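#lab-general

N.A. 3:47 PM
ok so I finally got the sequence cleaned up, no stray characters, all 188 residues accounted for. can someone with queue access submit it? mine expired

B.Y. 3:52 PM
send it over

N.A. 3:53 PM
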Amino acid sequence: MSAYLILFAVVLGVNLMPAFGPPTWSIIAAFGLNSDLPMPGIALAGALAAASGSLLLALATRCLRRWASERTRGNLAAARMALEHDKMRGILGLAQFALSPLPSAQLFKAAGWTGVRLLPFTLAFFSVRLISYGIYAGGAKAVQQLTFAETFRQNLASPLAVPVLVIMLAGLVALTRVSWARVFAKGK
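B.Y. 4:20 PM
back already:
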């Protein structure tokens, strides 16, 4: 039982990080190789922890909205209204969110910033991650030499990791600057 708690705590902590954390799939794979836990249990604990951490990150980001400029809050409100008003657009956005290869921290921060309902996003994220983490945990034997410490070090030492994360964070800021009311009005 303590091994599940350790896994849950590590994955939760990584998913609370707004940037520069190792990908959760690598932790799932590394943990699968270094424990005797059954793979379905690893996938379930990992998906629950990732969804919980991401939801908490989105809620924390939502609290920061009050310090955004009036223009930014207006743009975010327009994006939220467009996503929630048009059910098909909302469903397509939710599917894209759940299946996106983008880091989940940025996606959950964007969801928190816009103020959209987080429960459907979190449930979709959990469902997709439960499946993908099962695959990663099951395929963990392919990465037998990978450890948590090495995964974390490789992520921080990668020449691409920092620029990609900085670009993702800049993209998130840029999305708050878009006049979503105008963008969605042009689409009608």
